[in-house]
Each structure stands twice: as C-alpha cells, then as structure tokens.
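Hey,

Quick one before I head out. I ran the complex with calcium ion overnight. Inputs first:
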Amino acid sequence: MPKTILSIANSAFYDCWSLQTLICEAENVPGAGSRSFENIPATATLYVPQGSVDTYAATTPWSQIGQVKPLAAAPQPPANLKGDVNGDDVVDVDDLNLVINIMVKKASMSQWPDADVDGNGIVDVDDLNHVINVIVRKA
Ligand SMILES: [Ca+2]
Ligand SMILES: [Ca+2]
C-alpha cells in the first residue's frame, strides 16, 4: 500500500488465509473497515514507517494484525531477479528475446550481463531454458 493511501475497503483482506506480509508506507494510519483484517493468519505481520508502529498497533482494526513492525525490518525483494535480463523487474518475453539475440549475436552480453542467468560466463541454451522456465512457472 502506498504512502498516499487514505483508506481501504471494508473487507479488503477478509478471509485472506495465506496473508503473511502487509506493507503500508502511510505515516498516518489509513481508515479501514472493522472487518478488514478478520480471519487473516495470526502470524501475519504489518510493516509500517518506524514512527507509526505504535499508532498502528493501537488503532482498530489494524491492531487485529498479529504483529506490527517497522518498514526497515520488512523482507526485501531479491535485488537481482534471475532471468530479468533488461532489468525492468519482470521476467517476460522481452527478456527471452534478449537472450536469443545475444545467442545469435544480434546483441552483446557485455550490454546485458544478466542474460547469463546461471553465471557461467556464456549465454547459451541453458540460460534460454531458465528464462522460459521462469515465464512458464509464472503463467
Ligand atoms: Ca525484464
Ligand atoms: Ca550461462
């Protein structure tokens, strides 16, 4: 949830059994319906700006969330997404095309170092397969 969020829908997270991590960057606690966090796992953790931890923990219904921790403790997404050759944070057919272009020498590996997905120094069919697998798994 972004900094600018003012409120969330009444049952936004109602019955989200597998919800584990909630990140809210808003310093002022957004309005939320009383049932917003009903039936989420007790292990769910809400990450909010450092100075707002106590406020969230004391404000219903946010206080229903098992744990409230500062943003700094939030799990970071992997800095380098494997197979994201062009660095746009998604692995898709554009990345696949880049790997192919490097394999057929239409593009250079020095320009796209992440095309060497398995890091063995060459861009070949193994790297191609890896990118395909990431895309297929996502689909
Ligand atoms: Ca990409
Ligand atoms: Ca490789």
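The chain has two domains: 7-73, 93-138.

Talk tomorrow,
K.
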